From TrEMBL:
Pfam families (alphabetical): Sigma70_r2, Sigma70_r4_2
Protein's recorded name: RNA polymerase sigma-70 factor, ECF subfamily
Record-annotated RNA polymerase sigma-70 region domain positions: 19-85
The entry's keywords: Sigma factor, Transcription, Transcription regulation
InterPro entries attached to this UniProt entry: RNA_pol_sigma-70-like, RNA_pol_sigma-70_dom, RNA_pol_sigma70_r2, RNA_pol_sigma70_r4_t2, RNA_pol_sigma_r2, RNA_pol_sigma_r3/r4-like, WH-like_DNA-bd_sf
GO-annotated molecular function: DNA binding; sigma factor activity
NCBIfam families (UniProt xref): sigma70-ECF
Native species: Chitinophaga silvatica
Keyword Lipoprotein included in the entry's annotation: no
Keyword Transcription regulation: yes
Start and end residues of each RNA polymerase sigma factor 70 region 4 type domain: 116-168
One GO biological process term: DNA-templated transcription initiation
Source superkingdom: Bacteria
Length: 173
């Protein structure tokens, strides 16, 4: 593993692939046990390896690579959980604010039934899709801004928005 650590530190992509192949299953299992979500588990595995690669120059030769990877795993999970709590609070505050102010032109255009459908669809969405859709449609962030904030690719953001809109269109017909 020391050779693998040195190779990763020097920027060897094949060494990262070897580590990924060796550890993907363990990381996925750990994240799945903590989140009970296949999607989030896979995202967290990707985030952990991206963090490892991006901080490869800071890896220590004094600690085994496994220990450093485990530390990155745990911090990735903690970061995600903190973001979930923060987003849930922001969403709750947003809903309180919306209920207190006069309806906007956009909400006036929807009937109550359609608004209830939108809310139900959003509640049924996976957590990341719900966040992506909320950040896009309610906070007006671009795909790139959302990708940076959630540490996912812009293409993943686009896919989530596409899927969310398909769900909404299907139920609003």
């Amino acid at each position: 593993m020391e050779d693998l650590l040195a190779a990763i530190k020097s920027g060897d992509h094949s060494a990262l692939e070897q580590l990924y192949d060796a550890w993907h299953g363990r990381l996925y299992g750990y994240f799945y046990k903590k989140t009970s979500s296949k999607y989030l588990s896979e995202e967290l595995v990707q985030i952990a390896f991206i963090k490892l690669w991006n901080s490869r120059h800071q890896l220590s030769t004094n600690w085994p690579l496994e220990v450093q990877l485990l530390r990155i795993m745990k911090t990735s999970l903690i970061d995600l959980l903190r973001k979930e709590v923060r987003d849930a609070k922001a969403y709750q505050l947003y809903n309180q604010h919306i209920s207190q102010v006069a309806p906007t032109q956009q909400t006036e255009d929807f009937s109550n039934e359609q608004l209830q459908i939108v809310e139900k669809v959003m509640e049924a969405m996976p957590p990341v899709r719900k966040k992506v859709f909320h950040l896009s449609r309610y906070r007006g962030l671009s795909h790139k801004q959302i990708a940076i904030e959630l540490a996912i690719s812009p293409k993943t953001v686009e896919n989530h928005i596409t899927q969310a809109l398909k769900q909404l269109r299907h139920l609003l017909k």
